[in-house]
Structures are given as C-alpha cells and as structure tokens.
Design brief:
Blueprint: H1 2-21, H2 57-105, H3 114-188, E1 233-238, E2 245-251, E3 256-258, E4 263-271, E5 275-283, E6 286-291, E7 293-296, E8 303-304, E9 309-313, E10 320-328, E11 331-333, H4 336-339
Antiparallel strand pairs: 1-2, 2-10, 3-9, 4-5, 4-8, 5-6, 6-10, 7-9, 10-11
Length: 341
C-alpha cells in the first residue's frame, strides 16, 4: 500500500501528460544537478615562478621537473576522458530511446490494471533520473576536458622562458669549458718539447735558415727568418699576460705566415687576447708563437718543415698585423737578437 501511495502521483502525472500532450517527451530539469567540477579553474591556480638572471641551476631543474610531472598527470587524465565520454554518450542515447518509448506507451499499461500502470510509471521515472545523471556526467567530463586543455596551454607558456634560461646556462657552461680547455692547451703547449725528427732546407723565396742538427734551434740565433716574406714594418710590443716582449709585423691583408723553423704544431686555436693563435714546438723547449691570425692552415700535432705556411695575417682597424713571440719554456724571450735586430 505504501509503495502504491508513493507511485500514485507519478502515475497520475504520466496519465495527465500523456492525455494533454500526446507523444511529447517531458523536458529534463538539470538545474538542481549535484555534479560539480573536480578541480579549481586555471585562474585559481598559483602561477609558476618566472626565471630570473640569478636563478640557480638546481632550482631551474626542480621547476622544470615539477612542470613535467604536472603535464604528464594532466595528459594522462585528458587521455582517459575521451573513452569515458564516449561510453557516457552511448549510454545516454540508449536511455533516451528507452525513455521515449516509455512515454510513448501512454495509457497502454492501464489495460493491465493499476499495478501495471504503477510499475510503468516507476520505470519511466527511473529512466528519467538515469538520463539526467548521464547528461550531468557528460557536462562534467566536457568541462573538465576544457580545463585540462587550458592548463596544458598555460604550462607551455610557463615552461618556455625556463627552457630558454636553461639553454642559455648550458651554452654558457659549454663556452666556459671550451675557454678553460683553450687556456689549458695554451699552457700545455710550453710544457714539453722534443728535437725535430728532420731538418728541411728551402730556397731564398721562402727564407728559411738551415738548422744545425747538433745545435738545434739555438743555431738560428741572429739569423732567424721573419715569419712574413717580403717587406714588413716591425716593432717590439708587449702583449697583455705575455710577461715579455714580442714583435708586431705590419703586412698586407691575407699575407701568408710561415714557420720560422721546422717543428711540431703544439697549439692551434683562439686564445684570450691573442686571437687565433698557432704555437710551433722547435725542440729543446723553444717555441714560436703566431697570433692574431686571420686563418690557420695547420692543426695541433702537424709536423712542419721550416718555412711551412701556418696561416694568414688578419686585417684590423690599423691594418693587417701579425703578433709574433719566441719562448723558452713558458718564458717569453726577446726575439730581436734572433732576428739580428
């Protein structure tokens, strides 16, 4: 009796609706749906810290790792929404068709008595409530999908300056390591020396002097050829950090620079105030240094005969100038007596 008392108003509403509107399907009221979004809106989220010039590398890595983890979680949730939304919509279609059929039945269950009519009204109500839940679920999934897509867009905007900052730090680290390696290579170039394996004699157009096998490079004292053939203006200068005098030779732009004696290339790279530099080891701790080159034609480890081309003179605001040094070990020695100046 209690069950019939509860269902009777529903049956009465069903009969009245069927009698007055024929096959019309009652509209579903979703204004009181209890469904709510599971996550706050993107505007409510605190923005990620922006990179600064003093941002430590460890802090930067932690920020990027945090953004990576959040992005991974958001994408996983977004990927799961698609199948769930598809299932919900298929169920909505099935329940909507069932609801339509029940309402279309109208007065048909009356022939089975009042109990049959009450059961029919109960099925209609259950189907309507289930359909409302499906509609609310679809709205919730659609809203959440939009929120996730919006948050992923914001994450990309937050990540971009951090990635740029990290790339700049990586480039700075590489540049620093390269500079340190060049400094170390420049210092190592004067650390060891060996006697040349052979001595070459060239014609007067190149201008090499013959090495005495027994005296080695020291035999060229007073008759060392200039590293630039032809006319050149020569003056003594001191290069910052050299600790001793060198000579500066003014020549034509692109003039070839030649090794003053046979030896092994100990260094060929850019270095601090020297610019593009080649160092030739002539044995017994004697070295010649060719700096401010426009181009280098040799590599470290190459064996050169006397007069061999090592590069070209670079141009500058004051003309093409080659800086030349002689060293005994790491000590710069005056090249004047060697050139007979």
């Amino acid at each position: 009796m209690r069950r019939r008392a509860r269902i009777a108003p529903i049956a009465l509403a069903l009969l009245t609706g069927a009698a007055t509107s024929g096959a019309e399907v009652p509209a579903l009221d979703l204004t009181s749906s209890p469904a709510a979004a599971r996550a706050p809106s993107p505007a409510a989220r605190a923005p990620a810290p922006r990179p600064s010039s003093a941002l430590a590398e460890n802090d930067l890595d932690r920020l990027l790792a945090k953004l990576d983890a959040e992005e991974k979680a958001l994408r996983a949730e977004l990927d799961s929404i698609g199948p769930a939304l598809e299932v919900t919509r298929r169920r909505m279609i099935a329940r909507g068709r069932a609801y339509y059929r029940h309402v279309r039945a109208g007065f048909l269950p009356v022939g089975g008595g009042f109990d049959a009519l009450v059961d029919h009204a109960a099925r209609v109500e259950r189907t309507r409530l289930a359909l409302e839940r499906d509609l609310a679920r679809e709205a919730e999934l659609t809203r959440r999908s939009a929120e996730l897509a919006d948050r992923l867009t914001h994450l990309g905007a937050e990540r971009a300056p951090l990635e740029v900052h990290r790339e700049a730090m990586n480039r700075a680290r590489v540049a620093l390591a390269q500079e340190e390696e060049r400094r170390a290579a420049f210092a190592r170039a004067f650390a060891t020396s060996v006697r040349p394996d052979y001595v070459a004699i060239y014609g007067a157009d190149v201008g090499p002097a013959e090495l005495d096998r027994r005296a080695g490079f020291r035999s060229l004292l007073g008759r060392l050829p200039f590293p630039i053939a032809g006319r050149a203006e020569v003056r003594k200068v001191s290069r910052r950090g050299a600790g001793g005098p060198g000579v500066e030779l003014t020549a034509l732009d692109g003039a070839p620079v030649r090794s003053v004696a046979a030896g092994r290339v100990a260094f060929a790279d850019t270095y601090a105030d020297y610019g593009l530099t080649v160092i030739v080891d002539h044995g017994e701790r004697h070295y010649s240094v060719y700096a401010n080159l426009g181009a280098a034609d040799v590599r470290a480890g190459d064996q050169l005969p006397g007069g061999a081309r090592v590069g070209t003179v670079a141009s500058g605001p004051d003309g093409a100038k080659l800086y030349f040094e002689l060293r005994r070990g790491a000590e710069v020695i005056d090249p004047g007596p060697w050139f007979g100046m």
